[in-house]
Write a structure and sequence with these properties.
By secondary structure, the protein is of the alpha+beta class. The protein contains 13 helices and 24 strands. It folds into 3 domains: about 220 residues, BirA Bifunctional Protein, domain 2 (2-Layer Sandwich), CATH 3.30.930; about 45 residues, Rubrerythrin, domain 2, CATH 2.20.28; about 90 residues, Rossmann fold, CATH 3.40.50. Helix 2 crosses helix 9. The structure holds glycyl-adenosine-5'-phosphate.
């Protein structure tokens, strides 16, 4: 048997559509570019990913959660630098009408930008294109009613820093974690859910005493690396990349990206930034409200520094899908080639933990299968499937990453036992009915 990894994103796009993970948004109207809907399995999978991150970040004594509004006071975005600076240089090709980012396009020997679509040098001058989506709040649509869909969740944390610190009686160092939607009017979205205009971020801002930032930065780099290791991403597909001088954001003193090797190449998965006290200084100035922290023990006041860890939830979902995708190719005795597609997701991420597959739709088997379903559904995501051949049903569960299939056959009525099939090894075991729940839970824990 030969094992193959995911060769291209298109293969995953069709699996996701076929199996109810991800659909193109508004597909019946021709789709909306760069927007995607998570189907029943995708929604559960994404929730599992968020839960893993939320647990890792907030089940610690020094980090608390937050859920801030998407719409914020427009001055927030002046203070943060987004109104003036959150833009990409946009260029139009006068020959093929392609519109693209000048800073990411290739240059010729004379450093002239080349159109990535047709190779022309006949381009417009670059103009700054702000990536924030604007809308209007209230009934009047004018300059004064402009609000923005947030381009990052981070600012909701900064403006709530003192609220959280005082209401939760937190002492520095402490962090605030948040999961939520962000919006960017990207010039070149694409590659499935990798870069979209509406996406979800999972961010954490860790507030620290100035001078302890470098040590804290290293600590968070290592905590976040361990997170990726623990969730099972292959380590040879992960690396850290430091931002060079030209790449570093206006607010950051140091920045590292966690990169993952997607089928489209090495790309950013998470950014870890030392944001200094840039944001709190800006908000203090623009709001005219003191945002200093008072250290009672040392009897001193200061504006904390911030270490930020920021990962896109959709991008992490994509990385997990790419990483877990396998094709097991076997040449059969008759010379035909059989390919088993398996998502080797850790059970914590699998949308279904168990599938219940009665061998027949006949009453006694259905009844018994229904009882097993009712027992397991209390604590686990369970799918009941009685349609089609058992082989095809196994393959469908393999493709959606279900760790265990329980087959109920006519013998089950006699010996009061079922067959449990393991996704990765395809090993089958006969387990007595009364032990199923305990067995499955133990197996899920020790996976
Ligand atoms: N608060 C800092 C911040 O937002 P960022 O590097 O711009 O930093 C953090 O974004 C993460 O959000 C990225 O590493 C990426 O995973 C995700 N992200 C950013 N833009 C995205 C987009 N257009 N589509 C999907 N995910 C995106």
């Amino acid at each position: 048997m030969e094992e193959k990894n995911l060769a291209d994103l298109q293969t995953l796009v069709s699996l996701c559509k076929r199996r109810g993970f991800i659909y193109q948004s508004s597909e019946i109207y021709g789709g909306l570019n760069s927007c995607w809907d998570y189907g029943p399995l995708g929604a559960q999978f994404k929730m599992n990913v968020k839960q893993a991150w939320w647990k890792a970040m907030t089940r610690r004594p020094d980090v608390v959660g937050l859920d801030a509004a998407i719409l914020m006071h427009p001055t927030v975005w002046k203070a943060s630098g987004h109104v003036d600076g959150f833009s990409d240089p946009l260029v139009d090709c006068l020959d093929c009408k392609n519109r693209f980012r000048e800073d990411t396009a290739e240059k010729n020997k004379e450093s002239k930008t080349i159109c990535p679509k047709c190779g022309s040098l006949n381009l417009t001058e670059p103009r700054n294109f702000n990536l924030m989506f604007e809308t209007n709040m209230g009934a009047v649509k004018d300059e004064s009613s402009v609000v923005y869909l947030r381009p990052e969740t981070a600012q909701g944390i900064f403006v709530n820093f003192l609220n959280v610190q005082t209401s939760m009686r937190k002492k520095i160092p402490f962090g605030i974690a948040q999961i939520g939607k962000s919006f960017r009017n990207e010039i070149t979205p694409g590659n499935f859910t990798f870069r979209t205009r509406e996406f979800e971020q999972m961010e954490m801002q860790y507030f620290i005493k100035p001078g302890t930032d470098e040590e804290s930065f290293e600590k968070w780099k290592s905590i976040r690396w361990d997170f990726y290791k623990n969730i099972g991403l292959r380590l040879d597909k992960l690396r850290y990349k430091e931002h060079g001088l030209g790449e570093i954001a206006h607010y950051a003193k140091a920045a590292f990206d966690v990169e993952y090797e997607f089928p489209i190449g090495w790309q950013e998965l998470e950014g870890i930034h030392n944001r200094t006290n840039f944001d709190l200084t800006q908000h203090q100035e623009f709001s005219n409200k003191k945002l200093e922290y008072f250290d009672e023990a040392a009897k001193e006041k200061y504006l904390p520094y911030v270490i930020e860890t920021a990962v896109g939830c959709d991008r992490l979902c994509l990385a997990l899908l790419c990483d877990s995708y396998r094709e097991e190719v076997t040449t059969l005795d008759n010379g035909k080639v059989d390919t088993r597609v398996v998502l080797k997701l850790q059970p914590q991420f699998a949308p279904n933990k168990v599938a219940i597959l009665p061998l027949s739709k006949k009453a006694p088997l259905q009844e018994l299968a229904g009882q097993v379903f009712e027992t397991l559904i209390k604590d686990l995501e369970v799918e009941y499937d009685e349609a089609g051949s058992i082989g095809k049903r196994y393959r469908r569960q393999d493709e959606i990453g279900t760790p265990f299939c329980i087959t109920i056959d006519f013998d089950s009525l006699e010996d009061k036992a079922v067959t449990i099939r393991h996704r990765d090894t395809m090993k089958q075991e006969r387990i007595p009915l009364e032990k199923i729940e305990m067995y499955v839970k133990q197996q899920l824990e020790s996976f």
